[in-house]
Every structure is written in structure tokens, then in C-alpha cells.
Amino acid sequence: MREQLERSLAQPVEIYTARDFHALTDDVQRNESDMTLLPAHLARVAVADWGWAPLTRTVTATPVLVLVHDTGPVRTAADLRGGRVGMLCMLSLVAGVGARWLADQRLAGADGAQVVTLPSINSALMALERGALSGLVLRTQSRLSPKFRTRVGHGGSGKTKGLATCVANPSISWLPDLGSNQGPTD
């Protein structure tokens, strides 16, 4: 990606990473980079609230799955009540869609499922494997063991198609005026 950007821009490009979504959004708010690749929902905030310009958009929706152990007791969404549902960073789009799905299933709040944040996909899968979680909200299951299934259904797509994902600092003078279009709103 860096090499392609250098060729396209005809200038050196440096790529940095942030330790988590919190640090990433702090960096964007402080205008510490020229361009930033963000999850679609955070890019929308950067464009709408912080004046950044959209550069690229998503082309597909982000499917969100609720995984359970194939041989475990959870067969329906209602079976998650009183259990623990794992999610990664709560600033992620997947966690937002998962939290919304739990609310739609009437599983949010004190009498619903307890949301547990985990530091990595590996720790989340290990917790699901050993029964420390009743379910796990993820973006995909394409490379997971067959012992994990989406028995309780899909969390939805979060209406992510067509949203900005790469944004440019408003101080960049050489960018064309792309406007503040956020993509489809339906």
C-alpha cells in the first residue's frame, strides 16, 4: 500500500499504526497525520465532526456474526440471557452492531447478557472454547474451527456499504474537494 501511494503521489509515504481505536481517534482529532485509514463508522465521525475529507469508501457491507460453541447449550438468541457475550474493542463497528443486535433481541441491560470485552480474537476464541463465554460477536468465521457456529443468527451489517474508510486531514491543500458526502444513508 505504501509503495502504491508513493507512486501515485510521487512523494515519500510513511505508514504508522495505533495501539487501539482510542489512540487512533485521538490521533485523528489532533490532526497528527495527513491521511488515516479508519473503520467506516469512525471515518464518518472524522468527516462529519472533525472536518476530514473522505478519500475512499467501503464497497461491501460488514456482516456481523454471533458465534456459539457447536456443542454448547446456546441454541437461540434467548439462550444468551444471563450469559457472557464477548466482543473486541467497544469502539469497533462490529461491537456496535453486536450491542445493537443484543438490544434488538431484548438482551441488553442488567437482565440480559453481560458484554465482556476481550483483548484479542485469540483470547476471545479460547474463552468461548472453554465455556467462559456464551457467545462471541465477530465479523467473520471463514477460518474458524467448525466447532464454532452461528447458531443464534447474524447481528446484521451495520449499514456500512458506501461509507468513507480513508480520510484526509483538512489541512492538506493539494486534495481535490470531495465534499462531505458520507455515501448512501438508506
What is this structure, in a nutshell?
With 186 residues, this protein is of the alpha+beta class. It has five helices and nine strands, in the order ααβαβββαβαββββ.
Task: Report what the structure shows.
The chain has 186 residues and is α+β, with helices and mostly antiparallel strands. It folds into two domains: 2-57 and 160-168, no CATH class; 64-156, Periplasmic binding protein-like II (D-Maltodextrin-Binding Protein, domain 2). The chain has five helices and nine strands, in the order ααβαβββαβαββββ. It has helices spanning 2-9, 21-29, 40-50, 93-104, 121-129, and strands spanning 35-37, 53-57, 64-69, 84-87, 114-117, 135-138, 148-149, 154-156, 164-168. Strands 3, 4, 5, 6, 7 and 8 form a six-stranded mixed sheet that branches. The longest helix is centred in the middle third of the chain and has 12 residues, at 93-104. It is elongated, with a radius of gyration of 19 Å. Mean pLDDT is 80; it is low at 178-186.
At the fold tier of CATH, the topology name of the largest domain is: D-Maltodextrin-Binding Protein, domain 2
Mean pLDDT: 80
Regions with little confidence, pLDDT below 50 for 5+ residues: 178-186
- Structural class of the helix and strand makeup? alpha+beta
CATH class of the largest domain: Alpha Beta
Beta fraction of the residues? Answer: 15-25%
Number of domains: 2
Helix content: 25-40%
User: Which series of helices and strands comes N to C?
Assistant: HHEHEEEHEHEEEE
**Rg to the nearest angstrom?**
19 Å
Based on Cα principal axes, name the global outline: elongated
Largest sheet: 6 strands, mixed
- CATH superfamily (homologous) name of the largest domain: Periplasmic binding protein-like II
- Euclidean distance between termini CA atoms: 31 Å
Count of helical stretches = 5
